[in-house]
Design a protein that fits this description.
Number of domains: 1
Helix content: over 70%
Largest sheet: none
Order of helices and strands: HHHHHHHHHHHHHHHH
Distance between the termini: 96 Å
Radius of gyration: 25 Å
Strand content: under 5%
Number of strands: 0
Structural class: mainly alpha
Shape: globular
Number of helices: 16
Length: 463
């Protein structure tokens, strides 16, 4: 009996000791994490650039709450520097239209059918819009611009590698959620990366693949050319594994636009790559692609039902909208406008969704922002003699073209990571516009930066 008691006591002591060790380790790890977070916060408050670097590099990997916090800290850092006279505040022609759009968003929150959820969404939207003046007043040198773009490509490549790993490991098995099981029984996995949905991952890649292609196409340094070619191939493979038909078409459109803006040879090579892909890709891809326009396919039928119902909804809310965010939409839609028993989280159409959420003024102000941004990107592209900047501007225009086309079939702004990337691209375009018109006479040596160190002096100027 005494032996049993001693054994129990020893076991209790061992368990207590183990719990104590684990607890102390947990506290130590938690303390280290808190310490590192505080150090990063201080770095961001010290240098606004640190916040932008972290945002670009970790954008697809951060939880929404952390991303919003990082944006808020970066904006705060900029405001502090502004009041201390350590930062400038120069507005661009786009600023007025962004301000009008922001005002419409505020009204969409105040008069929302679900004001509490719209308030949360509105705070995120306004914070991301506040990042615009931070970027255009911080990204003033090509060296820093190239660093951000390089990190954006690196981040997207890591995201794509994770997506490819998901496919190889079969981590996300699709049943009936994202494909028609009768038409696509051979498709078992659609990769999502860290973005929760294959179509969202496709839209993320649509904005970055043209950039990687532009950097590959422009650099004269063979080592860098191989790096960017590898990144482009990895991201394209991940795009294929999303099985997003709209994403595939959007990417093809992006390549076409980039080729037309910069080099017709890109179009020819893209067409050749497409022919090779048609011949060598497995039947699952061609079967998926050939289903475009099949009105009997479940995904297309679902979208058609939602669009028809949403149009009835639009008749009543075309001017005011129902409120910002998908919660406001789904609360009204599923209760009063649902047809055929088809529930909907959103309309699967970017423009229709914005119209229903924010009213006609919200849609028009958003389209105006996009139009003015594209106009200034084109003017900068025509003005500059720096072929690196030309290629980057062309790639962003190409990416936006694909993204906006995909918006006809998908609404992705409910995903705050995509929302952040979109407004970051808009701001970077205007930052490059400012660079171009701030220095009409560019010297080759001025174009040497961290990323394009492999560019020759002749590469910086049109011959």
């Amino acid at each position: 009996m005494k032996d049993n008691t001693d054994t129990l006591v020893q076991a209790a002591i061992a368990i207590t000791g183990a719990a104590l060790v684990i607890g102390l380790n947990f506290i130590a790890i938690k303390g280290i994490v808190v310490f590192m977070a505080l150090m990063l916060a201080l770095l961001i408050l010290w240098r606004v650039e640190t916040g932008l670097i972290l945002l670009v590099l970790f954008l697809p990997f951060l939880p929404a709450t952390l991303a919003v916090g990082l944006v808020a800290l970066t904006v705060l850092s900029y405001i502090i520097k502004l009041f201390n006279g350590q930062a400038s505040f120069n507005l661009t022609p786009l600023a007025l239209y962004l301000f009008i759009f922001a005002l419409v968003l505020v009204f969409a929150v105040v008069f929302s059918a679900t004001p509490q959820s719209s308030l949360k969404t509105g705070v995120v939207w306004l914070l991301y819009l506040a990042l615009y003046p931070v970027i255009i007043n911080t990204v003033k040198e090509k060296r820093f611009l190239y660093l951000l773009l390089f990190l954006l490509v690196v981040s997207a490549t890591l995201q794509s590698l994770y997506g490819i790993y998901q496919y190889g490991a079969g981590l996300f098995i699709d049943t009936e959620g994202w494909t028609d099981p009768e038409l696509f029984a051979d498709i078992k996995t659609r990769v999502i990366g860290t973005l929760d949905n294959p179509n969202i991952l496709a839209q993320y890649l649509e904005l970055v693949i043209p950039l990687s292609l532009a950097l590959f196409w422009t650099t004269r340094h063979w080592a860098k050319k191989m790096v960017f070619m590898t990144c482009t191939i990895i991201m394209t493979l991940c795009m294929l594994l999303t099985y997003s038909r709209a994403g595939w078409i959007a990417l093809a459109l992006s390549i076409l636009v980039f080729g037309l803006l910069r080099d017709r040879k890109v179009v020819l090579l893209g067409a050749l790559a497409l022919l090779v892909a048609v011949y060598y890709l497995p039947g699952t891809f061609m079967n998926r692609l050939s289903s475009i326009g099949n009105m009997g396919e479940s995904s297309i039928m679902y979208r058609t039902f939602v669009w028809k119902s949403a149009l009835y909804m639009l008749k009543d809310f075309w001017f005011s909208g129902v409120g910002l965010g998908t919660n406001a939409f789904s609360a009204i839609y599923n209760q009063f406008y649902m047809r055929e028993g088809v529930f909907a989280f959103h309309t699967h159409n970017l423009y229709l969704q914005l119209w229903i959420e924010t009213g006609i003024l919200g849609l028009l102000s958003f389209l105006t922002v996009v139009f003015v941004n594209i106009k200034h990107a084109l003017s900068a592209l025509l003005q500059t003699h720096n072929i690196v900047i030309k290629a980057i501007l062309a790639s962003f225009l190409a990416g936006l073209s694909g993204f906006l086309f995909h918006g006809l079939m998908e609404h992705s702004f409910y995903n705050f990571k995509i929302l952040l990337l979109f407004w970051t691209v808009i701001a970077l375009i205007m930052a490059m516009h400012n660079m171009v018109f701030a220095a009409a006479d560019e010297k080759p040596e001025e174009n040497q930066g961290l990323l394009p160190a492999g560019f020759s002096g002749n590469a910086c100027k049109e011959s």
